[in-house]
């Protein structure tokens, strides 16, 4: 049986954050399989009872006067024991993947918000230029963790974003900073 968001509400720190009315739940588009094959790592390969059992995303309510309108996202991830590198410990490469992905979720949330307001259908057009990961503590598995991402700054086509994987009580397993560059449209 697949876990649900109601399973998260039984965990005190999750219930507290889920009740925060400054955030709204949003679909995690990278968890939806696509005919193009896009997002297949997160949507298919890492969507099972032994890998990422549940991914529930929230974002800050948009500030229509700000750019970007959605400054931060967070996700509750229920991780299984099929992600081990070391026994009962999450693989470091997967940790980097999760950090990169939560930053992509933030970028996508803003593209989706812009599309709704402008009545357009533009896709995500930014790519990771660099990702610097700092591993703080081994991430034990199985676990429910909190992934967060927020903009540090935006300069033209450059988007600087920070992210973290935590236990929900302030213990950081890993943090990252990244630069995403918006690809120039082809003429």
From TrEMBL:
Any matching Pfam family: 4HBT
Residues of the Thioesterase domain: 89-171
InterPro entries the UniProt entry points to: HotDog_dom_sf, PTE-AB_protein, Thioestr_dom
Domain of life: Eukaryota
UniProt-recorded name of the protein: Thioesterase domain-containing protein
């Amino acid at each position: 049986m697949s876990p649900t968001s109601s399973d998260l509400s039984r965990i005190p720190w999750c219930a507290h954050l889920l009740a925060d009315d400054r955030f709204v739940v949003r679909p995690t588009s990278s968890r939806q399989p696509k005919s193009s094959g896009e997002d297949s790592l997160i949507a298919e390969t890492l969507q099972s009872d032994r890998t990422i059992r549940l991914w529930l995303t929230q974002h800050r309510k948009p500030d229509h006067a700000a750019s970007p309108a959605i400054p931060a996202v967070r996700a509750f991830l229920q991780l299984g024991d099929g992600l081990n590198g070391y026994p009962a410990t999450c693989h470091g490469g997967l940790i980097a993947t999760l950090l990169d992905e939560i930053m992509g979720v933030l970028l996508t949330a803003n593209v989706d918000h812009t599309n709704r307001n402008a009545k357009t259908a533009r896709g995500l057009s930014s790519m990771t230029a660099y990702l610097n990961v700092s591993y703080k503590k081994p991430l034990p598995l199985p676990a429910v963790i909190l992934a967060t991402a927020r903009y540090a700054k935006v300069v033209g086509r450059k988007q600087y974003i920070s992210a973290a994987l935590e236990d929900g009580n302030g213990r950081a397993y890993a943090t990252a900073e990244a630069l995403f560059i918006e690809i120039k449209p082809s003429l």
